[in-house]
Amino acid sequence: MLKRKRNRSRRGYALAGLIALAACAMLFLMGRPPICACGTVELWHGAIDSGNSQHLSDWYSLSHIIHGFLFYLAAWALMRRQPRGMRFAAAVAVESLWEILENSPVIIDRYRTATIALGYSGDSILNSMSDIGMMALGFAFAARAPVWLTVLAGIGFELLALWVIRDNLTLNVLMLVWPVEAVKAWQSAF
């Protein structure tokens, strides 16, 4: 029984890898650039400019780590009987679908009109794959860390991003779903 569960978990991890590869292929077919149009690849891009969402990591990587925390919680609650690998595959599927949706014209236009990301042109494929990796890191952390530490880390990441760039996962979702002009003005004053 234990061996069977371990095999299903391994299949889940393999499935997660295939899902990420499929997302990469889909982004390529959508015409997303493989790397930043600037021609360089940066490990960290801390400036708030057109290089955002183009390199391996930036301030928005924190929100993808938080996705991992949240997806771990959701998978634990909804798929409790499934091995961790299968839960992980479900999390990678959700994150991959978001990366594809986020790089569709409708969401790119929504970011341009409803948020402070006026010149946003979508993610490079490299950044999208890194975002999936950041979610995976968050998922792995949440799977091993005490709940209180995961919650504290999530709050810390949100507050850090809010302080440094006046944006975070919470504000990003708010501004995409229900834009608040006062928040947009406050963020633009940065």
Give a short overview:
The chain has helices at residues 2-29, 61-78, 84-102, 105-114, 125-144, 147-165, 169-177, 181-188.
Tell me the Rg in angstroms: 17 Å
- Helix content, binned percent: 55-70%
Order of helices and strands: HHHHHHHH
| N→C terminal distance | 57 Å
Percent strand: under 5%
How many DSSP-defined strands?
Answer: 0
Largest sheet: none
Query: Please, how many helices?
Result: 8
Judged by helices, strands and strand pairing, the structural class is: mainly alpha
Number of domains: 1
Q: What is the overall silhouette?
A: globular
The overall pLDDT average reads 95
Poorly predicted residue ranges: none
Membrane topology: Multi-pass membrane protein
Main location: membrane
Subcellular location: Cell membrane
Protein name: UPF0314 protein ATN00_16385
What layout of secondary structure does this protein have?
Elements: H1 2-29, H2 61-78, H3 84-102, H4 105-114, H5 125-144, H6 147-165, H7 169-177, H8 181-188
Helix pairs in contact: 1-3, 1-5, 2-3, 2-5, 2-6, 3-5
Subcellular location: Cell membrane
Family: Belongs to the UPF0314 family.
Protein name: UPF0314 protein ATN00_16385
